[in-house]
Amino acid sequence: MSLPRMLRIRQNFGHSYIPDVQGVVRSEVARVFPHTPIKPGDSVAITVGSRGIANLATIIYALVSELADRGCNVFLVPAMGSHGGATAEGQTKILEHYGITEEAVGVPIKSSMEVEQVTKTEDGLSVFVDKHALSADHIVVFNRIKPHTDFRGDIESGLLKVMAIGLGKHKGAMYYHQAAVTLGGSRVIRTVGRSVIRSCSLAFGLAVVENAYDQTAIVSALLPAELEFQEKELLNKARELMASLPFKEMDILIVDRIGKNISGTGMDTNIIGRMMNIYTEEPEWPKITRIIVRDLTEETMGNALGIGMADFTTKRLADKVDWKSTYANCITGLVVEKARLPIVCEHDREALEAALATIGLIPPEEARLIRIKDTLSLTEVLVSEAFLPQLKGRPDLELIGRPESFRFDIANNIID
């Protein structure tokens, strides 16, 4: 089968970033610290999630250092729901993958799946919080603010979410996802987060927003009283800064890798235009006929949540899947569709040819293909020659180099 030739293009999103992330984190903490109830000698639990946040280790180190310099006894608490196979050891291992260890950060990491019920929400939902976090005099929540991959609302993925899904651990995450089917994800996260603020000693939250280049663009420390309103504002900003594919319609999207460090759903549903859950409508754009996923990231540790959104994959990927971890995550999140195994092909060439054979009466060499490394890496992408007319009049797109044919190694896998 003849294959389309590919062009490398660079997307110009035009966004700024913070060059001194550590300095800004420390200055933000210093700004709000006098308005918190923290006293020298108090213990402070800091939440750390499982997302692939830019500069994560740097941010956590700066946050720990600033609080320690102010006389606090700091420790870290993994706040990642059921990730890491829903085990304390697995969640500690995830932090280690991000370079966050007790030796590197200089404070204890207290990992447990045990929670306590602290109150009920206005809807009557039980509110569960990690036992280690509750043992501290104060809690500091940290997370990235971004559009959620499973629902839409004015509160999505951020600080309130980490109070609910993160600090709720496996028990809370399962319960809140079940409640979201009836009440909606945004309402559940908002009301549970409000209850945690009201019932627990939350000192402040530290939020980050990233730009389209996966760089830290905003760092903001938020006091409890302003947290919900400011999170809404930061979510709007995150939407403005979010990257996207260069075109809204395509025949095939090739994704080189997916993983939990890329997105909570392996590949970001906001980028690929596929939700696949029982409580959210499918987005109108982008429209992609077939998706090929080639591999898993090492950091995902076999968790292949999100593979169900693909149409074709490789034996290479399938052999790496930890189904126990994947199923635990998908069942907890009520996104069992995202664990479905697509058609498994022996190698990349077979996957590509199979996809091209299933897009209708379109000659393979004229198919509209886009290839990306992952849904976080969208600055430089490959597009097929069929998109060449659409590049004209697009100042945000820069053509780099000449058209190139797909190259395969001896095992018929794409040479990067």
The whole-number mean of residue pLDDT values reads 94
- Number of separate structural domains: 2
Strand order of the largest sheet: 12-11-10-9-13-14-1-15
Helix content: 25-40%
Intertermini distance: 20 Å
DSSP helical segment count:
14
> Could you say which overall geometry the principal axes of the C-alpha atoms support?
globular
* Secondary-structure element order, N to C: EHEHEHHEEHEHHHEEHEHEEHHEHEEHE
What does the largest sheet look like? 8 strands, mixed
Topology-level CATH name of the largest domain: Rossmann fold
| Total DSSP E strands | 15
Question: What class do helices, strands and sheet pairing give?
Answer: alpha/beta
- Alpha-carbon Rg, integer: 22 Å
The level 1 CATH classification of the largest domain is: Alpha Beta
Uncertain spans = none
* Content of β-strand: 15-25%
Which superfamily, in CATH terms, is the homologous superfamily of the largest domain? LarA, N-terminal domain
